[in-house]
Design brief:
5 copies of one chain form a homopentamer. Chain A is an alpha+beta fold and 324 residues long. Helix content of chain A is 61%, strand content 15%. A 7-stranded mixed beta sheet of chain A has the order 2-1-3-7-6-5-4, with helices on both faces. At the C-E interface, α8 of C face α7, α8, α9 and α10 of E.
Chain lengths: 324, 324, 324, 324, 324
């Protein structure tokens, strides 16, 4: 479904909601700047891409397919075809989802396509509606603005994951439960998936900033380089997060084993103190005819005191050896 | 055994089931397009490869040998010799098998050879029998179609492994058994083997798409690049699977140790509560002549109450410390 | 806030505390050497950067933003824009913080900007105030001096971390507590973060020393190469620290498990010695009418001796098997 | 000790057992093909290498020294000096030994030297004695045949290691003993050592097949490329073996811990069932004057039944919780 | 302190113990060969380096500083400045120390400087005193001889570490103590430190052998290449050592846990056999008025037999399940 179709005429007037025919017309002039954004492609949209814009069938197929596509850039001379990924972190389920943005960048047009609504795209749309000057700097700058907004959305997700990490660390330390482990694993997996999408993404933006593509104006390159720097920062933060998650996992495991050790020490305390005492009681429970102590007047009390001494000595010994 | 031998004449007629002599004749013309597919090579087939097609003896030896060959590409100027791998995942035994396809790609012919039946090859065969236009675009496109079908078969196998992974995670969580561990290990190994075959495969297709080989027409390259993109996607999914399997293994280990901890806690509960009580009973089982409590009228009942108090206090203490 | 603004006139006089207008004037001459240092940028400072120095808006934005920026170097032809990191190790909290220094290096000026006070910058400031000859060798040498001071501050931090490591090892060995583990983890994370900032930093300095930038005079390059060597040394020490921390972690874990093993052995000693003895006592506590031993004159004493023999034999057996 | 010295005269006659003088003479002609193989070098052999062949003293020193030399290739313009490794797997001791073959390859001669007898060399010797045509294709092909035979010997060793691995896995699963662990470790180390020797070896053969050395004829290169493919296959199988060994190690560790868990569960079963029962018996063993139950006619039998009920209930509870 | 100052005059006479002035004089001629070796630099030596040899102040500073410098090579056109590392393994403390040798290599001089006495340098000194021909081949060969002697000293250290490893393995297997673990860790760390110093060292020698520096004569390069091969061998052995140490660590951990398991099994044996028996004895120790078995004539003996049967059956059961 076409979300928007802007056209900035060469004399700086912004036209909105163009029809398919108008798009074809403006394209043919090679002047002004056209931006078409599509969400959840219909067959009509695909037809626009294939026949009006005459994009390569494989690129159009990538837009239509609901599969995950790793970030990539294809140079079709007249236009570049980019797939870049945004990020969506669902804090309650600890799942990081990446959302794809397919982008055709031509001399005087930008065509974007995505399966789900994207905050970064709609924010740029809104800003253009308010102030068409954003489109005056040309197609390469417009594409830059869109990708920049996409990359900026990484930061809040990473901050949320960082918070989640802290929360899991506290949980691991004080109340390690099965669910804590599951959450840590999930988070670790999310971070790994994120790391994996970052690398190709960074390389694409690096290529754009290094002047490998003629469609990117020299003046625009330093701005792409700026996105590249953001991605390097995101990558560094992600690696820090990964260390953090690794450390939370260690904390969890050590917490659980610590807990178990305390339980075992309690068993040891009770058992090692009372087993000898029970043995002593067992001795004087024997029925031998001739057991002199049994006849002593204070035999019972003496034995009680002996038992108390044994018990206290053992407990003291354990304490001294710091076992309890 | 020759499975099929198609010849598309320059005027677009499709001939099937060619004899060895016909193949030689068509080859000599350098026109039209010939596809010969062989399964489980006989010595007669080898003779065809060596003498009619005049392929290099080392390439023919690779076709005949039943050994595993890593994916590779050899450029013999007049033709390319490729080995690419497909995938066969047996869900019940958790084993990933790769199946080899050897492919000779010449100017006007494609010769494929494999040891076992391959779904991808036979699907292309069937499609050509119905519609010979598939062969009109030339040898490079035909080879592309075959490899593309091969790569498309990766996705269902990966999905099945993903499902198996989920199933093993549930099993590891709720009923960790010896067999679960064996299955996780097997799956991990399969994923690693798959990862290892992906890398050279990707590089081969990358070479084909970058124009390193003159036999691949420029128009065809973007289609090979599309296969490359698929392989990158498969690789990313495989890496995700590997993380997943790693995480299932952790779940299993933590499940087993969790189970053991519960058992140990039960031992501790019973032992630490009853050992002191047994000691108390032991005391009053002693046979001292002078034990005043024994003569008290309600001594027995008092002691029973004392024991109950001790037992309940200990249980309460344990519960408060969250040990049980 | 501008911290200082030095100007060394071509005839070797040092002017301090320049006004914004003076800075503009001196800049225009292209002679002498100007150093402006800013801490915690105000909007007025940003204005100076943008309008007087005419730096690129993206570079100025990097200076203003409080975000972490990985080390980088941007070549704007007329000037270089560098971000390098210093280090701040808080021994009590075991946290390594890196502090950023943004530096513009032009033909006859150096502009530095940082968010927090930096010891390395202020030490150079002080030295210049005492002896203006430090500025005579040109902008590239001045930038070198600042970066060199920054890098020299790494060594004390690494030494402190090394000491902390030793202290944690002793703690892990003799008194492994929960907090010890937390500290080890924190230290490991700090070292990893440090490793990660070192690599890009080293590469930047390597680029400066290899003559990739025309603004660095050939004579100055060997001095940058010297900083590079320092960074290689710091990296090697950091990797040694990482091994060390890994080994302290192993020591901690083995210490905890060792401690637990001792506790369990004590349980085993007590239980395996007294359980059989208690059984023997239990036998002679049975009330059978016909138990000949009970009537023997020295039956009780014989049994006591038998018990002692059993107990001592078991203890001796354990000792011989080195279980205790 | 010289093992053999073949000379194929330009008119195709094979001379065997040449004297040192003959070797010198044939060498000088620059025609025909000479192969000298030496085992366990004597000083006389060294003299032949240094003075008749005039090889570089460092290369001769490498031949004489009994040290391990990593695979390498040195280009002395007139001849190549290669060190390649074969493999010897002693299944009973699980040790993989690599055996070195030093090889000088000149325009019309091949000189091989090794410390211990090598199956690959002697098999080629025997084949030449039967059929001198093997030497007709020139020195580069002869060297290829020797290296090929060497590489072919890798496969049986890898298959034996694979079998050993399977056997260890069965052992780890059913009878994990100390020796099993030692064997797994030994095997892992052997595989790692093998992996490490493979990489440089592969790179050397890669160099030979890529035409980096003028002495290797273009026609021979594809045959070296074939050896390269074999080495890639061996490497892939070795990596598979490593995963396998890793997995056997996990199986062993899990087997041992599983075994221990069963033992602990038995302890728990017995202790948690009998400790409460013993307590009950202890109560009625107390000697209080007033214990009404003791006087009941069927008190004893009632208590026996109560005990049986408690015991069975506990056992049922454990079974229901799947603890036993 | 200057250790020696040799000068080989152009007509082959060896002068020893030169004064500072003589050194300056010989240097100026540009003929003959001068070797100056300094240990533990005094300020006078530094003056010689700075003023007589006119070395770059940064290189001289590296010689003076007692810090660790990673291996490096600096090309100052007229001379090369190298830092290479030797090795010192203290077997009793398991510490590997690397010792630095700074070396200036000019057209007709070699200047070496080190902080501690180095066996490799003094052995070359002694050999020259006996036979001055060692200096006839020029400065590059002399530097080669010194570095070669340095590298040859790696082998005995590695052999000692190998022995230490074997000794630790035996200890880990038969008598795992706290100290064994500490030693293993220390050894592992030493090996890692060694690995880390090897890589840059190898690369430096590789550069020298590849003809990157004009001061190294073509004839000398193959000799540097020989050192490179030695370093590759040392690296391979070091990696083997690392695997070995890893495996010793596993042995230790498994030994400790094995030991603990034996202890736990003994506990289980004793407890599970005697706890039920004690319960039986407890039953007949109850004081019920009506307990028919107590009155039986052979009741006591029957019960003793029953107990023996129970005990033996349990022991047999455990043995059959291979628990003991």
């Amino acid at each position: 479904m076409m979300q928007c179709a802007f056209y900035l005429t060469p004399d700086g007037k912004l036209l909105d909601q163009l029809s398919k025919e108008q798009i074809g017309g403006f394209l043919a002039t090679g002047e002004g700047l056209l931006w078409v954004d599509m969400e959840d492609l219909t067959s009509e949209d695909a037809d626009l891409l294939s026949n009006t814009f005459c994009f390569h069938p494989l690129a159009v197929a990538d837009c239509i397919s609901k599969n995950i596509h790793p970030p990539k850039i294809d140079d079709f001379e007249d236009y570049l075809f980019l797939i870049v990924h945004g990020i969506n972190y669902h804090i309650e389920s600890e799942i990081v989802e990446t959302t794809e943005l397919a982008c055709f960048l031509g001399k005087n047009y930008v065509v974007t396509s995505h399966d789900v609504p994207m905050r970064s795209v709609s924010s740029i749309l809104d800003r253009i509606r308010k102030d068409e000057r954003l489109m005056r700097r040309g197609a390469d700058f417009l594409a830059h603005d869109i990708i920049d907004a996409l990359v900026d959305n990484f930061m809040p997700a990473i901050e949320e994951m960082d918070e989640k990490n802290d929360q899991l660390e506290a949980e691991a330390l004080h109340e390690p439960k099965r669910e804590t482990l599951m959450s840590i694993m999930q988070l670790k997996r999310s971070i790994l998936a994120l790391t994996r999408v970052m690398l190709p993404q960074r390389e694409i933006v690096n290529g754009l900033s290094r002047g490998e593509y003629a469609l990117i104006n020299e003046r625009a390159r330093i701005y792409y380089r700026n996105i590249y720097d953001h991605l390097v920062r995101v990558e560094m933060l992600t690696l820090g997060l990964r260390d953090m998650a690794e450390s939370v996992l260690s904390t969890y495991l050590s917490s659980v084993s610590n807990h178990m050790n305390e339980v075992m020490k309690m068993l040891t305390l009770i058992a090692t103190i009372f087993i000898p005492l029970t043995f002593v009681a067992g001795i004087y429970g024997m029925n031998f005819a001739n057991m002199p102590e049994l006849e002593w007047r204070y035999g019972y009390f003496v034995i009680l005191i002996v038992m108390a001494v044994i018990g206290i000595s053992l407990a003291a010994y354990f304490r001294r050896r710091r076992w309890l």
